[in-house]
Amino acid sequence: MLKNARFTFQKFSDPRWGYLRTFGDTYVPDEIFEPAAVAVKNYAADILRYEDAINWASRAATINTSWGWPESVDFVAQLWDDIDLVRADVFKGAVARGCIRITDVPQGRGGGVCWPGFIEFNRDLTLNDPVYLAHESGHLVAGLLPSDPVMPWNMAEMPAFFMQERAYDILRAQAATDKAKHIVDLHRLSDYVGVLTRIPFCLWVMDQQRTDTYEETLRTCFRAWAIDSDDTIKRYEDWAEDDKPLAHKAQMLHSHPLAALLMIEFYQRFKKAGNDTQAQMLSALYNKGGQTSLVDMLAVFDVHTKDDLKQAATCACDHLAREIDRCGFKTPRSPALTV
């Protein structure tokens, strides 16, 4: 057990995970993940029933948008300019050095992945490009800025989702019509409601890891999770068959949805903060100020206890519920459905 004044960390719950050298860095401890997950459970049934409708509406709207590639790159560069010129120069320098490796894909298939020092980006020339380039730029800039020690993996999604949330905020502010704003809103909802589907799965992983059939059950679940195409199924089966146990790979399911969920609320706190506090938040996110643990980062965003964490997650879920209502997908909490 790793102890801290604010949290008690359970490094892992299953002895089969103990030999993984990177486990303490990559896994979000149960003591941090579970309070957020409890908040999500109170909303999941109400919100997730709209997931398919939101995804279909977002996809139909997104494939009819048009973004030129220089326009997307300039948009993300401007996001960084508005935050900090040093970080902006890091991003622009990476672009100039060819650190974004592009593959053209059909509309609706855009996205990317960031590796140390470069981004592999699937360009589809729709709204996906500025949004997901902003996300991957968060990884890239955090990785290229000087830091000692290197940011732990369980924090790695925080700077990316900060930039993604900022991209949505600015895209909506710049949208010229109500229809354009609605398309941005749908895209954002599709992203974040999808995040909520991962959190109940993470709770299931925590429970299943104590069973004798854990590896087999998790392998089956990954195959079921990848039902969108034969190619994706093959990719996940290959992932499952390589030399790392599935337990190790399941860690990403903790850090990714937790970061997305919390950044919905943390970005709002950033916008309301004064200049000095904003500077501290950016230093924590991009590791220039020496923030070296997930607990340190949470503290900068005024999360010091498990109750604080649950409250932040609850605020994020409340925000999503209001956005679903505003976009026309009425939740059971909506006054429009009150009898």
The Rg value, from CA coordinates, equals 20 Å
Shape: globular
Q: Provide the CATH top-level class.
A: Mainly Alpha
Overall mean confidence score, pLDDT? 77
Q: Could you state the order of secondary-structure elements as H and E? A: EEHHHHHEEEHHHHHHHHHH
The CATH topology comes to Neurolysin, domain 3
Report the portion of residues in β strands: 5-15%
CATH architecture, by name, is Orthogonal Bundle
Q: Number of DSSP helices?
A: 15
Major β-sheet profile: 3 strands, mixed
* Overall SS class: mainly alpha
Helical content band: 55-70%
* Total of domains: 1
The strand count comes to: 5
Written overview of the protein:
This protein is mainly α and 339 residues long. The chain has one domain: Neurolysin, domain 3. The protein has helices spanning 23-26, 30-48, 51-62, 69-83, 85-96, 128-144, 157-174, 178-208, 214-225, 230-241, 246-249, 252-272, 275-286, 294-300, 306-326, and strands at residues 2-3, 8-9, 100-104, 111-115, 118-123. The strands form two sheets. The protein has a three-stranded mixed beta sheet with strand order 3-5-4, with helices on one face. A hairpin with a 2-residue loop joins β4 (111-115) and β5 (118-123). The radius of gyration is 20 Å and the shape is globular.
